[in-house]
Amino acid sequence: MREVPASAAIRDALSAAVSCKFMQPAVYILASQPRGTLYVGVTSDLVARVWQHKGNLVPGFTQKYDVHTLVYFELHSTMYDAISREKQLKAGSRAKKVRLIEAANPDWQDLYAGLL
């Protein structure tokens, strides 16, 4: 599979995540495959939480539907802001989530490796 450069927004978020040692509130979207099943979550440690999803250590939706590819994330300054954004994303339509993902990550690449 060829590597495609991430959008500027994703590059900036990756850079911010690396500079803050990952301990920062984040909202994230996982997918089972491009345009597949989506999961929206919130965490204070993005790397650890996605690792848990990928290892099927989180019982529930992501394990049941094999949703393990990190396709989108946003970093926030407070957990309150991250939870508010998570609620906003969950309340939005699937089409809005797909547009958000494709604006930042048009090839639906797994962004997890870029966090490490």
Oligomerization status of the protein chains: single chain
How would you name the CATH homologous superfamily? Answer: GIY-YIG endonuclease
The topology string of helices and strands comes to HEEHHEHHH
The CATH topology is given as GIY-YIG endonuclease
- Percent strand: 15-25%
Main attributes of the structure:
single chain; about 120 residues; alpha+beta; GIY-YIG endonuclease; 3-stranded antiparallel beta sheet
Give a concise summary.
The protein is α+β, with helices and mostly antiparallel strands and 116 residues long. Helix content is 46%, strand content 21%. A three-stranded antiparallel β-sheet has the order 2-1-3.
Provide a descriptive summary of the structure in words.
By secondary structure, the protein is α+β, with helices and mostly antiparallel strands. The protein has a single domain (8-115), classed as GIY-YIG endonuclease (3-Layer(aba) Sandwich). 46% of the residues lie in helices and 21% in strands. It has six helices and three strands. A three-stranded antiparallel β-sheet has the order 2-1-3. The longest helix is centred in the C-terminal third of the chain and has 13 residues, at 79-91. The radius of gyration is 13 Å and the shape is globular. The two termini are 20 Å apart. The mean pLDDT is 87.
